[in-house]
Amino acid sequence: MSIRLTEPEILPPGTEPADTFKPRFGGAGGTFSDENLDMLSRVLDTWFQVPGTSIRFGIDGIIGFIPGVGDLLAGLASSIIVLAAFFRGVPMITILRMISNLAIEVGIGAVPFVGNLFDIAWRANRRNYHLLERSLEAPRRDTWKDWIFMGFLGLGIVTMMMVPFLLLLWLGGSLLRGLHAPGW
Question: How far from the centroid of its chain's Cα atoms is residue 130's Cα?
Fold first, then answer.
């Protein structure tokens, strides 16, 4: 049995493969390292466990009980993962998905008590960390699933915006028909 010593592959400067991620503003280490972001997502979403059950929750679910500012503070802490994804060069479609997860959590989380239970179940920070991780590991920068998700989300937002408009049209039509009734 012989031992083969091989030379490490060294690329000349400026010839990195085209599919590697380039951080937008400096390196990916330090505050935005995988270890720190994973720990942050766990602290916010799954740090504590209800004894005797598999139910886990984090500081995000607890902070939400503070009236008025709890969900805002939790949303600000959660946005650190999205910011880190931007700085690390994650594709914009993935960042949009992360912002959507965060908006859903903060929006529904604003409903007293029920919103806190939703925060515990939704776990937007763990979702966003996994999106970051998957995006950095994947050879393709965005997937068809990202685009389908954003398409349905956009369709849902447009539908929600149209409901009040259609309601006003219906109400206005009813009022106009009522004014032209033969008894007036």
Answer: 10
User: What is the distance between the alpha carbons of residues 94 and 140, in angstroms, rounded to a whole number?
Assistant: 12
Query: Smallest Cα–Cα separation from 123: which of 154, 90, 81?
Result: 81
CB 126 within 8 A of CB 41: yes
Instruction: Answer yes or no: is pLDDT of 176 > 60.
Output: yes
Which residues in 16-125 belong to E strands, given as ranges?
48-49, 56-57
Range of the domain at 97: 30-156
The answer to whether residue 11 is domain-embedded is no
pTM (2 d.p.): 0.64
pLDDT, one tens digit per residue, over 90-145 is 888 888 889 989 888 888 888 888 888 888 888 999 999 999 998 888 766 666 77
Structural domain contains residue 10: no
83 lies in a domain?
yes
* Number of domains observed in the structure of the chain: 1
